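Note to self: keep these together.
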Amino acid sequence: MREEAERRARAADSTPAAAATDVVSFELPGDDFVPSSAPAVAPSALPLDLRPSAATGQRRTDSTPHPVPEARVRGRRRAVRSPRPVVSERRAARAAELLEVDDSAQPARHARPRRLTRRLIVVAGLATGAALLLGSAAMTAMMLPSAPDAGADAGLSMTADPPEIQQLPVPDIEESPPAADICSLPDVTAAVQRGDDEAAIVAAGGGEAFRAAVVEGRAPCVDLSDSARIWTVMDKIRPASPIDYRPSALVLPDGVRNVEGGALRSDAASALASLVTAARNAGGGEIALESGFRSYQTQQETYGRHFAERGERADQVSARPGYSEHQLGLSADVVACAGACGSLDQLAATPQGQFVAEHSWEHGWIVRYADGATPVTGYLPEPWHLRYVGPELAKAYHEGGWTSLEEFFALPPAPDYLG
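Structure:
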């Protein structure tokens, strides 16, 4: 390009001096410009040094053809004054450089951005998203545990067995243990001191809690040999204390037919009246008291009679003096009555006997000598012999399926007398 500019400059130096003052004028592409004094010659046919001038609208003529640059500068016309014929080659080259137009020039500022730019932005966004996804997948693969080697051809695996999750620790929640000593409970101690046995059992947590405390040795204030308590146990190896014990406040059960005029402790008498009333109201018939309290002396006579009839077998049906529950005032032998009253042996086959077996515990009574318990109690079954232990202990006895007080309180069996 520089060589071409120098050639044109030398050609301009050979042009006649008279043409030095001529001015060539032309209009940039897009303008409606017509020269006023020069003949219509295509701009592409003019030489570089004879370009049109925007000031005069005239052209210089020259025999050397040269393309005319087509350019628009901010929408206005541009006038280029032809250089004088006598100029230096350096100035001519500089003029040629200034007049050349670069086809790759950027568009004017007001031109609309090309769609290619938007496409490039979209492509760049997609490429960025793909790179993020690939990077996330690579990071996940690095965090997963290595899979066992499956061979030389095995590729990188993106799947792996989930890590074994250790079981979360379970808090060790323990129930508060019961009081080590139920007798340390103020209510229990107060009830025992005033002789309210049922209240003491309730304060200890009920019949089952009281039983458990006695069995486990957590009830030092509870004496199973105390003949004045409803929880006392009398059998062939556990006599009354004292041997001729006699309870106080013996009464006749209210509203109960009394065959022999027997009496009971006041609490036992009320409980028997409740049982008899419930049986009557349920249509079970009438229940009468055959025998209640027996003193030490009375039991001597009773046992003597049985011994005279049975000899040593009398111990299976009658207790020796001082070993009979009747001496406590807490035992009752009952019979069924339908106008006249039947015998003790007839009770089990009557509706009254069935009611006693099924519902006596609801009123604080248990059948003391049950069928199948002879090896423990030492007595043949006596479905008529009831023992009062109070509502709480009777409930625990019934719900636990017990058949003897010895087993209920974890005491040794007493099939025979010791001496």
